[in-house]
Specification:
108 residues; three-stranded antiparallel beta sheet; DUF3679 domain-containing protein; Uncharacterised_YqxA
């Protein structure tokens, strides 16, 4: 049994080291593919905050806080009802109440 556990731990450690090495090699390969260090290279997501205005850029598409506020308002106007969400809330409230009562019974 000890040999099995020792072998299992060695294999798990070897796999962890292999995964970390593979991630580092992939990162180096990506930098080599680009070929140069470009300071103006855009990130996939960039967020800029100036005063009350927040602007974000996702893959080069600009999104402002006004767009987000309009989308939020439209979602609130739709007032969509999610059956599973409401059932989950009721279930969690019931479980919470039952566990509180059980704890009170045990402690009293």
């Amino acid at each position: 049994m000890r040999m099995f556990m020792l072998k299992s731990l060695c294999i798990a450690a070897l796999m962890l080291i292999s995964v970390l090495t593979g991630m580092q090699l992939a990162n180096n390969g990506i930098h080599k593919m680009k070929g140069y260090d470009d300071a103006s290279f855009q990130n996939a997501i960039s967020i800029e905050e100036s005063g009350n205005n927040i602007s974000a850029s996702i893959l080069g598409n600009d999104i402002s806080s006004h767009d987000i506020a309009a989308k939020k308002k439209r979602l609130e106007e739709n007032s969509a009802f999610n059956f599973f969400s409401s059932m989950g809330k009721k279930l969690s409230d019931g479980i919470t109440g039952a566990s509180e009562k059980l704890i009170q019974l045990i402690t009293d």
